[in-house]
Amino acid sequence: MNILIIGIAIVLLIVATLIARKKLREIESVSLLDFARRMRSGAEFRDIEPAALEEILARNRDGLLLVDLRESDLFEAGHIAQAISLPFDDFMHEVLVEESYDKEQAMILICDHGLKSKVAADILGEDEGFSSVLSLRGGMEAWQKYKEPSVRFACCPNFGS
């Protein structure tokens, strides 16, 4: 009897773990602690999806500053056309120490996977009072996947995704 109960408990634990992992994968650019803190506080996420960024860029919005926070070599290897290169440490120094940017300046921050840009957007928005700063969710990795989706075959549309 005890073995049966232990077996059922183990199966339930495995199922719960698999469900939790799936949910965490859906929250790509947010750490678990950050996610829990934000959910508890009701804070708004400062992310923008690649499709929404493409729409904004298509409208040729003046006054929008697109800042690529990756190192120069990664920027040179490929970047969004309207972006300027300003590595994370340099950008944070300019914003926090030199106070080079207006707090009303509309900015979208970009990095490799969306983590550094998210941290910068959160610091600027929550701690420094910037009103219009967003992070590209998933970073350049997500942008490249969005712009160059995987190959799909006509016979099997779900194959390759």
Give the arrangement of secondary structure elements.
Blueprint (H helix, E strand, L loop, with lengths): L1 H25 L5 H10 L5 E2 L1 H9 L5 E5 L3 H6 L6 E2 L2 H10 L8 E5 L4 H13 L5 E4 L2 H9 L14
Parallel strand pairs: 1-5, 2-3, 2-4, 4-5
How would you describe the overall organization of this protein?
- With 161 residues, the protein is an alpha/beta fold.
- The protein folds into two domains: 37 residues; 104 residues, Oxidized Rhodanese, domain 1, CATH 3.40.250.
- It is 51% helix and 11% strand.
- The chain contains seven helices and five strands.
- The chain has a five-stranded parallel beta sheet.
- α4 links the parallel β2 and β3.
- The N and C termini lie far apart (45 Å).
- The relative contact order is 0.14.
Strand content: 5-15%
Global outline: elongated
Assembly classification: single chain
Helix content bin: 40-55%
What's the order of the H and E elements?
HHEHEHEHEHEH
User: Helix count?
Assistant: 7
What CATH calls the topology of the largest domain is: Oxidized Rhodanese, domain 1
What is the annotated CATH architecture of the largest domain? 3-Layer(aba) Sandwich
Instruction: Indicate the radius of gyration in whole angstroms.
Output: 20 Å
Low-confidence parts lasting 5 or more residues at pLDDT below 50? 26-32
* Major beta sheet summary: 5 strands, parallel
The CATH H-level homologous superfamily of the largest domain = Rhodanese-like domain
Give the CATH level 1 class of the largest domain.
Answer: Alpha Beta
For the biggest β-sheet, the strand order reads 1-5-4-2-3
- State the secondary-structure class: alpha/beta
